[in-house]
Amino acid sequence: MKKTIKRTFRVSKYVIYKETLVDYKEHFWSFLGAFFGIGLIAFIQSHSLLETENIFLIGSFGASSVLIYGAIQSPLAQPRNLIGGHVISAIVGVTIYKLVPDIIWLSAPLAVAFSIVLMQYTKTLHPPGGATALIAVSSTGKIPELGYWYVLSPVLSGCIILLLVALFFNNITPNRSYPNHNRFKKLLKKKHNHTLKK
Predict the structure, then answer these.
(1) What residue numbers bound the domain in which 80 lies?
(2) Does residue 183 sit within a domain?
(3) pLDDT band per the 50, 70, 90 thresholds, residue 153
(4) Cβ neighbours of residue 171 closer than 8 Å, sequence gap 6 or more
(5) pLDDT confidence of 123, banded at 50, 70, 90?
(6) Per residue, what are the HEC states of the chain?
(7) Which among 16, 18, 63, 15 has a CA at the least distance from the CA of 38?
(8) What residue stretches are annotated with the HPP transmembrane region domain (predicted)?
(9) What angle, rounded to 10 degrees, do the helices at 104-121 and 79-99 form?
(10) Sorting pLDDT into bands at 50, 70 and 90, what band is 198?
């Protein structure tokens, strides 16, 4: 028992120490990824849509940016989770809104709860997906009018933009690797070695 406690203490100390280290390069690339990912969506929104239709930039994309640019090794930040979690949650949110449109105390918890269970079931758990479902049932104005188009734009199109930016900025240096799948890592390594040989 003493060994287990000592080991747990040592591991905890190491994790806390590692979490408090300031890695300026890591923070720099996280900043750039988030800046360009959210910036690109905001730019498209401000230049392509009328002021009354400014719905391309939804709040849950901010939370996704924390994961896909700042915690790139997290299982919840992987592309399958990013896209699958948001799309499934958007479908759930719109469906719940269509079934129970005027009872927010029922539609909001149903949307979030069903989206969590479906993300778990499909192995696409992505915490910001819960916010995507909640936005679908609690927003006023243009989002409810979109219906299932909400799934395609802003949700899917925004996720694709965030993912493309993440693939670029999270693989720009050899110290960062995204997504966290062996198959993708091998492909990047081959491409990197091929470039070095030239």
Answers:
(1) 25-174
(2) no
(3) confident
(4) 177, 178, 188
(5) very high
(6) CHHHHHHHHHHHHHHHHHHHCCCHHHHHHHHHHHHHHHHHHHHHHHHHCCHHHCCCCCCHHHHHHHHHHHCCCCHHHCHHHHHHHHHHHHHHHHHHHHHCCCCHHHHHHHHHHHHHHHHHHCCCCCCHHHHHHHHHHHCCCHHHHHCCHHHHHHHHHHHHHHHHHHHHHCCCCCCCCCCCCHHHHHHHHHHHHHHHHC
(7) 63
(8) 22-179
(9) 150
(10) low
Residue 42 forms part of a structural domain = yes
Across the chain, what does the average pLDDT equal? 85
Torsion of Cα atoms, 51 then 55 then 160 then 63, to 10°: 120
Q: Which two tokens stand for residue 4?
A: 């287990």
Count of domains forming the chain: 1
